[in-house]
Design brief:
The complex is a heterodimer of chains A (about 280) and B (about 400).
Chain A: H1 16-28, E1 32-36, H2 42-53, E2 57-61, H3 68-72, E3 73-75, H4 77-86, E4 98-100, H5 102-107, E5 114-118, H6 127-130, H7 132-137, E6 139-142, E7 147-150, E8 156-161, H8 169-173, E9 176-180, H9 185-195, H10 201-216, H11 226-239, H12 243-246, H13 266-284
Parallel strand pairs in A: 1-8, 1-9, 2-5, 5-8
Antiparallel strand pairs in A: 3-4, 6-7
Chain B: H1 2-11, H2 18-29, H3 37-48, H4 55-66, H5 70-78, H6 82-87, H7 95-103, H8 106-126, H9 147-154, H10 158-166, H11 168-176, H12 182-189, E1 195-204, H13 206-215, E2 224-230, E3 233-239, H14 248-261, E4 264-270, E5 277-279, E6 289-291, H15 292-298, E7 304-308, H16 316-319, H17 333-343, E8 347-351, H18 362-370, E9 375-377, H19 380-390
Parallel strand pairs in B: 3-4, 3-7, 7-8, 8-9
Antiparallel strand pairs in B: 1-2, 5-6
Helix pairs in contact in B: 2-3, 4-5, 8-10, 12-14, 12-19
Classes of the chains: A alpha/beta (about 280), B alpha/beta (about 400).
Chain lengths: ~280, ~400
């Protein structure tokens, strides 16, 4: 059991509750559903779990048009029809036209794999319901070849959701659930640390202060999250911005340098500029 | 011991299922949690709670059970539910506001003060002063929803808003009936489907292809067919601003569900009641208005008309010419809504106000009469009933 425990990696800081949820899912071989603000490392988690436990990773990215069936297999009827017209020998074996999906690939893996089902809420509202049996029993039936595909090793399934749609109860009941809450300053310090080990301490402190100040501004359409902070620090380092520039002090509401990495839409930038304007005006009066 | 915890959770409103409890027990048997209480807490939360807005509730029940503090649970039942606050993030009271309520002599006093204030406002309204027109506080923006809208409104109507949050009846309504989320609304709206094939032929019609190929002596003859779409046409009229600020959240959910469910969805806004013109873009409500007569011309009678509004206003706004709070209307609102109802035989009114209050608000009674009783509460059940009337 010991080697099966996930405790975070050199590039991913996992909190205690996240570790517990992941380990419970690994031990009981049940799916784990991850929710949280965009940019808090939901998708990253699957990669890190696979890396830490030394498992192959299969990624299934969901789009609004994705059907549950596509994860299992596709029957390429058109290719078969074409081959029959051309008199190809392959046409006699229907198996030649069954195209495997990600779930099938994961089920066939020789060692227990990690299967990522990314952004499940993007798909049609019935999508999770169509996968209930597959996730529960870890098997499905290929009607064309009358073949039952059963997982050799029950994969560790990581499912992420951005909360765009509510997921059905029957589906939720089969999963472990974890909500990645926004990291506090200490955790954030550790996260930045593993990404930028040589960062000067005072720059980090100033950057974090400025970052949390931006997050505290009410009315932002999209609050900057961990991934935006990491991008921003990368830019600060590349531009060699000295920590003094970030220091807040009297111009507390001033726009931080290279704000494009933190604020992602023009309304937010506009809101910020207004705050700066108001702040200046109140100080001159 | 976990059984009693399980039932406590169910009583406390977290509602875990038996499957989930079994998974938790299984996990403990396999030694996932180890010995520490923290571990057990994380494991139990991950197994039993599937919605982050219920975490807080779970925390409190957990504390109550594992420290033997039965009282805490009892307090939980009567206290202001955090989850409700959570869902209505815009309406959360600050400490300062709580203090204000206290300073006014508590909740009952506040209610009295409120009623007085409202009455006073009505008098002033008769005098022609347009006190209710909270222009710009609209909850709906270009894409139908503007979360900032509420915050602007907050400055003017803090007290009224505060009562809403404390209002226990409203909370019970939310908790006891089916929770109205986007998903539930969508499933309810699905009953209003009428499939038809139209548009570009982009799907392979397998049956027809086989048939034609066979007739073609085995030479491939591919037949295409347009995809099936929901052909129902809906004209949605939403009340914005003023008293509707309290229902922003639910209207937003209703709206976003409707937008993804119907291909032919036209939406228009009004304030309190419909008059000779409505508007499509709430930010330009004064510049770009659509005459109501033009709407009935443009959208045929096959459209289904759905009003969403609390119908809470002064009755003058419905029955008198010049009753509108925003402008001088030549003809009363009742005349205009009857014209709309004549053009669209299939029409309903969805009201986010709790149904128990309908009889106490004259304007709601009046609107219901005009709608020939086709007013339904904006809950999953109400939506279901309403959609039956639209068929």
């Amino acid at each position: 059991m010991a080697e099966n425990r996930f405790t975070g990696t050199s590039s991913y800081i996992a909190t205690d509750d996240l570790m517990m949820a992941v380990n419970a899912a690994v031990t009981l071989e049940r799916p784990i559903l991850i929710k949280g603000e965009p940019g808090t490392g939901k998708t990253q988690l699957a990669t890190e779990v696979a890396g830490a436990l030394g498992r192959p990773l299969f990624e299934w990215h969901i789009k609004s048009t994705t059907k549950a069936q596509q994860g299992l297999y596709d029957y390429d009827a058109v290719a078969r029809l074409r081959d029959s017209q051309l008199g190809d020998e392959r046409v006699h074996d229907i198996g030649n036209y069954i195209v495997r999906g990600k779930v099938w690939d994961a089920f066939e893996s020789d060692i227990q794999p990690v299967l990522l089902i990314d952004e499940i809420d993007k798909a049609d509202i019935e999508f999770p319901n169509d996968l209930l049996r597959e996730l529960d029993r870890m098997e499905f039936f290929v009607y064309e070849t009358k073949q039952l595909v059963k997982a050799r090793n029950r994969p560790i399934i990581v499912i992420t959701s951005n909360n765009e749609k509510e997921l059905p109860d029957a589906f939720l009941r089969r999963c472990f659930f974890h909500y990645i809450k926004f990291p506090d300053k200490d955790t954030m310090g550790r996260i930045v640390d593993v990404h930028f080990p040589d960062l000067k301490k005072n720059l980090l402190r100033e950057a974090l202060d400025a970052f949390y100040q931006v997050r505290e501004v009410t009315g932002l359409k999209k609050k900057p999250s961990t991934s935006e902070l990491l991008d921003w620090i990368k830019l600060l380092l590349a531009e060699d911005i000295p920590p003094e520039v970030l220091r807040s002090g009297d111009k507390s509401k001033a726009i931080p340098p290279l704000y494009g990495a933190l604020l992602k839409n023009e309304q937010d930038v506009h809101l910020f500029e207004q705050l700066v304007f108001l702040d200046r005006r109140s100080r001159t009066q | 011991m976990l059984t009693s915890f399980f039932y406590m959770l169910r009583e406390g409103g977290v509602k875990p299922s038996i499957t989930e409890l079994l998974i938790l027990l299984q996990a403990m048997q396999r030694g996932v949690a180890g010995q520490s209480v923290d571990d057990f807490y994380y494991l139990a939360r991950s197994c039993l709670v599937k919605d982050e807005s219920r975490f807080d509730r779970f925390d409190r029940i957990f504390a109550a059970h594992f420290h033997g503090m039965e009282d805490a649970l009892r307090a939980l039942a009567s206290e202001l539910p955090d989850e409700w606050l959570h869902r209505q993030a815009e309406l959360v009271l600050s400490d300062e506001e709580r203090a204000q309520i206290e300073a006014m002599g508590g909740f009952d006093k506040l209610m009295e003060a409120l009623i007085e204030r409202l009455e006073e406002q009505e008098e002033r309204h008769e005098g022609g002063n347009k006190w209710i027109g909270t222009a710009g506080t609209s909850p709906f923006g270009a894409h139908g929803y503007n979360p900032e809208g509420v915050r602007i409104g907050q400055q003017g109507s803090r007290h009224r808003r505060a009562t809403k949050v404390w209002d226990r009846r409203e909370y019970r309504n939310l908790d006891d009936t089916v929770e109205l989320g986007t998903r539930n609304i969508k499933i309810a709206l699905r009953k209003l489907r009428k499939f038809a094939r139209e548009g570009a032929a982009d799907q392979l019609d397998l049956d027809d292809t086989i048939d034609k190929t066979a007739r073609n002596a085995g030479l491939l003859d591919i037949r295409m067919i347009p995809e099936r779409h929901n052909a129902v046409k809906v004209l949605l009229c939403l009340d914005v601003g003023g008293s509707m600020d309290d229902h922003v959240r639910i209207c937003e959910e209703m709206f976003s569900a409707a937008r993804s469910e119907f291909k032919h969805l036209e939406y228009l806004y009004f304030h309190n009641f419909v008059y000779e013109s409505l508007w499509k873009d709430n930010r330009r409500r004064h510049a770009e208005r659509v005459p109501t007569a033009e709407i009935t011309h443009k959208y045929g009678p096959d459209y289904k008309l759905v009003f969403v509004g609390d119908a809470t206003m002064s009755p003058y706004e419905i029955v008198y010419a010049g009753g509108s709070v925003e402008h001088w209307n030549e003809e009363p609102g009742a005349v205009w809504i009857r014209r709309l109802l004549n053009s669209y035989p299939k029409a309903i009114w969805l009201n986010p106000e709790p149904q128990e209050r309908w009889n106490f608000t004259p304007s709601i009674k009046l609107t219901r009469e005009i709608m020939e009783d086709r007013m339904f509460p904006l809950t999953v059940g109400g939506l279901d009933d309403g959609i039956k009337r639209l068929h």
